[in-house]
What we know:
This protein is an alpha/beta fold. It folds into 2 domains: about 90-255, Leucine-rich repeat, LRR (right-handed beta-alpha superhelix); about 260-365, no CATH class. It is about 40% helix and about 15% strand. The protein has 14 helices and 9 strands. It has a 9-stranded parallel sheet with strand order 1-2-3-4-5-6-7-8-9, with helices on one face. Helix 11 (about 285-290) links the parallel strand 6 (about 260-265) and strand 7 (about 295-300). The longest helix is centred in the N-terminal third of the chain and has 21 residues, at about 5-25. This is F-box domain-containing protein.
Amino acid sequence: MTSTQQLRRSTRRSQARFLTTSARPKNLRGLPCLPDEIYLEILSHLPSFPLLSCHDASDIATYGPRRLALDALSQTCSDLRRVFLRYRWQRIEVYSQMELEVGRGPLPKTRYNRKGKSVAGNRAYAMELVRQLEVVTVREPGLAQVVNVLDIYITDYSAETVIPELARCMSLMPNLHTVYIDFAFFGAIGFHQSSIIIDSFAPYKYPQIKNANVSLNAFFFISRCPDLKVLHIQRRHLWLRNVPDFLNYIVDACPAIEILGNILVPQAFPFNAPACPKLNVYIEIFSRFQHLHDVTFALNALPRDSDMQAIWKTANLRTVRILFNLSTYFTHDQVEEWKTQMKTLLLKISSGSKGGHKQLIVTTA
């Protein structure tokens, strides 16, 4: 057999092997061959953190597995990666005791010394946040288009580097509509605003953000979200007495706000006796939010009837929600008695009001 014949035979064999391999269908059995509709049905059984989540142990147990499952599915094979990768990166999450990928364990609890400085362990939060931001903006920049939710807890570890990078990356996420940001170390006492936050976010605006759940010290960041519609203040910060200052700062920067949640009412009362909260301080503020129609107050004392009447008559306000902390100051029977009184009062107010239906919703914590 001549060398020419051997070369032709070898070429035909190579072509046959290529055609056999390329024509062979991939993943004809099992999970990878299911239609996309089934994958979406599977996803519907993996709930994600709601906007108002407090990230306690029960929340983590309920909502945490979604991210781990999506991580595993997107790394199984190319067929599943095509479907699940975009859903995995719809949310960037870094929160206390969050479970990381297999072998890396959970994030530790954040800890601070008596001077308010972080101790060993907080480094992991910064590293995990930077890692996820790098994935969606550097390794696979197309993923920045699918990020919808940012749910992060920021410690003071390398804050002068991490926060500017966060601000820059958020500007690359055009479909980011919801943020849950806790600047956990800035302004731990009092109403303090770190220059790092101001300097980091000043160059940017985020008109794509519509919903926010933030710590009080994030007021400058919130002022960079001009089209914000829903704003909640995290309960961990409700003891701070500066909510009116917070609202006064953002009222001009965020005129489109429609819903305000967890508004702490400033109070001054003896330790063992509840006092009437001063709701009237909010009347002028609320009137400046032209589109505001839903407000939630966090109270640990019974409000005055006169204050409730004034709040009820605020222009555009349709829903007033009262969240009581029962455990500290008064009994369940006291709240029930107040609710009865409020029903009578509100019926009287609403019967003479104009502009449609209004409602009061009372819940306890």
